[in-house]
């Protein structure tokens, strides 16, 4: 990672995705989480206070050393054990069928090999487990989508590889997962990042 991506982006992300609006959306998605959780793009750990009592452990995947340091207090205060298990969601050093829940919130936009990451999520899920996701992505509105495509290159440079144009539901299905719940919301934010996918999928 470059200096900007390693030291600045995690701090901006922590603030930008730390609003009451985002917290409420995360809590809504995480209500289904249970058992052993693998979380892709753990960041500074904003999900930890939001996991329901049914969660028994969290294994965190996070490439940024700065974000992991920022997460230290939340990890120490978490009601369940938290273990950092890797840096790359596309290459999970975990056995097959090892998680009851895989969680991704605002992470699939940034993982370089997102297709492989979703296949890895499917691999580590136990039978009956779920991938829970809250992601921004490609809008179905043509006018918004045009702006997303225009700004995508700039967004990637400013936000450490974050894409504006990924069709999250299509990517999930293409990885061999079956979407069992899918909603959409619009943030009170700039239009290019405002379209959200909230869902759950099973292997």
Entry summary:
35% of the residues lie in helices and 27% in strands.
Explain this structure to me?
- The protein is α/β, with parallel strands linked by helices.
- It has one domain: Rossmann fold (3-Layer(aba) Sandwich), CATH 3.40.50.
- Helix content is 35%, strand content 27%.
- It contains seven helices and seven strands.
- The chain has a seven-stranded mixed β-sheet, with helices on both faces.
- It is globular and about 45 Å long.
- InterPro entries: Methyltransf_11, SAM-dependent_MTases_sf, Thiol_S-MT.
- Keywords: Methyltransferase, Transferase.
- Pfam families: Methyltransf_11 (PF08241).
- It comes from Actinomycetospora cinnamomea.
- GO terms for molecular function: S-adenosylmethionine-dependent methyltransferase activity.
């Amino acid at each position: 990672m470059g200096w900007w991506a390693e030291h600045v982006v995690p701090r901006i992300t922590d603030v930008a995705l730390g609003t009451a609006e985002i917290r409420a959306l995360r809590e809504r998605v995480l209500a289904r989480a249970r058992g052993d959780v693998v979380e892709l793009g753990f960041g500074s750990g904003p999900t930890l206070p939001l996991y329901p009592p049914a969660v028994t452990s969290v294994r965190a995947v996070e490439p940024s050393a700065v974000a992991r340091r920022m997460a230290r207090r939340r990890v120490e205060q978490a009601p369940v054990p938290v273990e950092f298990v890797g840096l790359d969601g596309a290459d999970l050093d975990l056995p097959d069928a090892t998680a009851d829940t895989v969680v991704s919130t605002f992470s699939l936009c940034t993982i370089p090999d997102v297709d492989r990451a979703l296949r890895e999520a499917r691999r580590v899920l136990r039978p009956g487990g779920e991938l829970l996701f809250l992601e921004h992505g490609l809008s179905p509105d043509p006018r918004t989508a045009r702006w997303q495509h225009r700004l995508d290159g700039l967004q990637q440079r400013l936000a450490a590889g974050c894409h504006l144009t990924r069709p999250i539901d299509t990517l999930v299905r293409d990885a061999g997962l079956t979407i069992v719940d899918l909603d959409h919301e619009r943030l009170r934010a700039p239009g290019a990042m405002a379209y959200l996918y909230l869902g759950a999928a099973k292997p």
